[in-house]
């Protein structure tokens, strides 16, 4: 287990597995176009996002998986300029994009993190990966059900489970969102869920993801106040800031709980209506 300062507490993980963390990224967004290219303290949101993920001690190799559309050539160039691995694939079939990116890098374990989570805590990434490895799951996340503030999304899966899903999944939302085939078919996969050790559930009350201009404004406020003091600021520091300045939490309050589940709530077996807002 990793402590907050990143020091490894004595523990055996058995046979070492090759971990690859895939950050899915694209410039196209109907709600907030080119959101990952917006400035965030002299860099882009995507740069800050990758910076956060690189702070994880267990992330293995990191690859940015973008689309093969011409508009996303800018992401490939950004990866080249910063020395990041990049894979370009299908714009709608993210299951295929994740599988082929992971296959290219010879992954045994694949970590999926979206690019709209620039406040993600690297320690949470480590904890979910460790949880997966310790229990020999096919798939584990901190999302089913969620307890952390929205925007700390970590999903971990075996390459075998990802490949099986890639071959077998056939519904549009299973291909578009990469992992539903796994967590919806608990009879086929050994599934684990990592819950917030505080016992709290902020998944519907605290929104740290980026889909709307209001989300961007909140993320800017947090970075401007915390990053100069500590570039590796933690979830605890974010929550302390919001407790000290509660008005900040209201910036994007209208979008609390809004996620993609709402579009498929009648098709998803393992998601309850109270786990999503029906707001469009």
What do these coordinates show?
With 280 residues, the protein is of the alpha/beta class. It has a domain at 19-193: Spore Coat Polysaccharide Biosynthesis Protein SpsA, Chain A. It contains 9 helices and 9 strands. The protein has helices at 45-54, 73-82, 94-104, 122-135, 159-168, 172-176, 180-184, 213-226, 235-244; strands at residues 19-24, 39-40, 43-44, 61-67, 85-89, 109-114, 139-141, 155-158, 191-193. A 7-stranded mixed sheet has the order 5-4-1-6-8-7-9, with helices on both faces. Strand 4 (61-67), helix 2 (73-82) and strand 5 (85-89) form a beta-alpha-beta unit. Helix 3 packs antiparallel against helix 5. The longest helix has 14 residues, at 122-135. It is globular. The protein starts with 18 loop residues before the first strand and ends in a 36-residue tail after the last helix. Residues 1-14 have low confidence and may be disordered.
How would you concisely characterize the structure shown here?
This protein has 280 residues and is of the alpha/beta class. The protein has helices at 45-54, 73-82, 94-104, 122-135, 159-168, 172-176, 180-184, 213-226, 235-244; strands at residues 19-24, 39-40, 43-44, 61-67, 85-89, 109-114, 139-141, 155-158, 191-193.
């Amino acid at each position: 287990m990793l402590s907050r300062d990143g020091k490894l507490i004595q523990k055996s993980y058995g046979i070492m597995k090759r971990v690859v963390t895939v950050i899915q990224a694209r410039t196209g967004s109907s709600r907030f176009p080119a959101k990952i290219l917006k400035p965030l303290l002299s860099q882009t949101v995507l740069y800050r996002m990758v910076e956060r993920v690189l702070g994880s001690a267990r992330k293995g190799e990191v690859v940015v998986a973008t689309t093969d559309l011409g508009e996303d050539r800018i992401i490939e160039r950004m990866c080249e300029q910063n020395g990041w691995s990049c894979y370009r694939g299908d714009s709608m079939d993210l299951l295929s994009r994740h599988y082929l990116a992971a296959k290219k890098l010879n992954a045994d374990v694949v970590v999926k993190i979206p690019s709209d989570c620039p406040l993600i805590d690297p320690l949470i990434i480590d904890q979910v990966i460790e949880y997966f490895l310790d229990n020999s799951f096919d798939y584990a996340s901190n999302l089913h059900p969620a307890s952390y503030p929205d925007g700390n999304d970590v999903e971990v899966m075996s390459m075998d489970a990802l490949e099986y899903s890639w071959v077998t999944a056939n519904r549009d939302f299973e291909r578009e969102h990469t992992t539903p085939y796994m967590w919806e078919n608990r009879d086929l996969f050994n599934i684990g869920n990592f819950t917030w050790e505080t016992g709290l559930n902020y998944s519907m009350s605290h929104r740290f993801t980026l889909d709307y201009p209001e989300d961007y404004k909140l993320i800017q406020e947090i970075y401007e106040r915390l990053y100069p003091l500590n570039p590796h600021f933690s979830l605890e520091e974010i929550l302390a800031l919001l407790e000290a300045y509660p008005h900040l939490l209201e910036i994007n309050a209208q979008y609390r709980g809004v996620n993609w589940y709402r579009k498929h709530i009648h098709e998803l077996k393992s998601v309850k209506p109270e786990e999503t807002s029906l707001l469009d």
